[in-house]
Specification:
The protein has about 425 residues and is an alpha+beta fold. It has a domain of about 250 residues: Jelly Rolls, CATH 2.60.120. The chain is about 25% helix and about 20% strand. Strands 3, 4, 5, 7, 9, 10 and 13 form a seven-stranded antiparallel β-sheet that branches. Strands 6, 8, 11, 12 and 14 form a five-stranded antiparallel β-sheet that branches. β9 and β10 form a beta hairpin. The longest helix has 30 residues. The termini are far apart.
């Protein structure tokens, strides 16, 4: 008997009443089955977030930014509350670097002196014989050509800080304190101090000078102390003097020791007729001339010269007899000047070890037949940018060295 036939036979043996209960029994069994099956739970909030990754990333980013802002804000507030109060101390500038105030004081003193002299009451007598005046012996100025050998304060040999220039400034052996027509502007540099006067620079003149001679730009000296006062020079015939007169002329004698300094003069010059020229000179220690940014003369002590320029011929003629150590005259390179054409000119002078300083600069024109001395040295004109004043002539002639003062003026006006 098959399973299907047995099923029908069993159902045939059921009573009518039992057959009526079959649908209800199926319903009960279905309910019991449904009750025994697990009831599905709704998803939690975290599950819903996991199913949305973009929303989760945004929330995490927001939380990180809030934490970072909180930490940064707390640190800033803490640093403000704990910051120390800074006291600023203003240091007044030294009196030695106030040339305008010094000039004003000197002018005021001269005005007071002239006023006092003009208001003096003259002495009147009936007869000149009634007034006994003591005899005053006025010493005559020395005419000895070697009087310049008496070294010391330059005020005794030409007026460092004395007298006035044509434009109202004070005349010194290193130039005038106020601009002069046709003059070169001079800058004083000290290689022992940095620009703030706080410490000694790592480089000195030999290193910085080498850089300067490549370009003739003053920016090569910007790391060193530069005197605020500028001087304006029209010639470079400076007698042998104490090296401390240079810082004094530039108004920094209380700030600069008289060694390892240079003065750089720059501007323009010209020749009215034009021609070919060359500079000739000597110095203790340094005298360097550049035309159009090119070295045409380097005179003085060679061990203090950082450049590569060399003279074509060995120096053979002596300079002024002011010192047995003054080097012989060095002859420079020829250069051409067009008539009345302004040309860049730089003159650098300086003293390295200290002690004494002096420089003597002449100019020679090609084709001119100059008078010569007994030893055969041509008597050259002193290089000048304007005609010499009477005091300049007296000062330059004191050393008794044969020279010409009537040469042409090369100032560019």
């Amino acid at each position: 008997m098959t399973a299907k036939a047995g099923k029908y036979l069993n159902m045939a043996n059921l009573t009518v009443e039992q057959i009526g209960y079959l649908p209800r029994m199926k319903a009960v069994l279905a309910w019991q089955h449904s009750m025994s099956a697990p009831v599905p739970q709704p998803p939690t909030r975290m599950q819903r977030l996991v199913r949305r990754p973009l929303l989760l990333i945004l929330i995490a980013s927001l939380v990180l930014h809030l934490l970072f802002g909180l930490v940064l804000g707390s640190w800033k507030i803490f640093s403000i509350l704990t910051e120390d109060t800074v006291e600023i101390e203003v240091v007044p500038p030294p009196a030695a670097i106030q040339p305008q105030q010094r000039a004003y004081t000197m002018k005021t003193m001269r005005t007071q002196r002239s006023t006092a002299l003009s208001t003096q009451i003259p002495i009147s007598v009936d007869q000149a014989s009634d007034l006994n005046l003591p005899k005053i012996d006025v010493p005559k100025p020395s005419s000895n050509p070697t009087a310049i050998k008496a070294r010391g304060s330059a005020s005794g040999i030409g007026g460092i800080g004395g007298g006035t220039g044509a434009s109202g400034g004070f005349a010194t052996l290193f130039g005038n304190t106020s601009p002069l027509a046709g003059a070169l502007e001079g800058h004083f540099i000290d290689f022992k101090q940095d620009r703030y006067r706080e410490k000694a620079p790592q480089q000195g003149w030999m290193d910085a000078g080498k850089d300067f001679l490549r370009s003739y730009k003053l920016r090569e000296f910007r790391k060193f102390f530069n005197a605020p006062q500028k001087l304006y020079a029209t010639h470079f015939y400076i007698p042998l003097i104490n090296a401390d007169e240079a810082p004094r002329a530039f108004g920094v004698e209380t700030l600069v020791e008289p060694s390892q300094w240079v003065a750089v003069y720059q501007g323009q010059f010209r020749s009215t007729q034009g021609g070919s020229f060359r500079f000739v000179g000597t110095a203790d220690d340094i005298l360097i001339v550049g035309v159009k940014g090119r070295t045409v003369l380097s005179a003085g002590f060679t061990e203090s010269n950082p450049g590569k320029w060399k003279a074509d011929t060995e120096p053979s003629f002596l300079g002024p007899s002011v010192s047995q150590y003054l080097p012989k005259l060095t002859v420079g390179d020829w250069f051409k000047l067009a008539p009345n054409e302004p040309t860049e000119l730089s003159v650098l002078i300086g003293e390295i070890p200290g002690g004494e300083f002096g420089c003597y600069l002449f100019i020679e024109e090609k084709g001119v037949d100059y008078e010569t001395t007994q030893e055969g040295r041509p008597i050259l004109p002193v290089f000048k940018l304007k005609d010499f004043s009477r005091s300049d002539i007296e000062q330059i002639n004191r050393d008794g060295y044969p020279k010409r003062l009537d040469g042409q003026s090369f100032g560019f006006f």
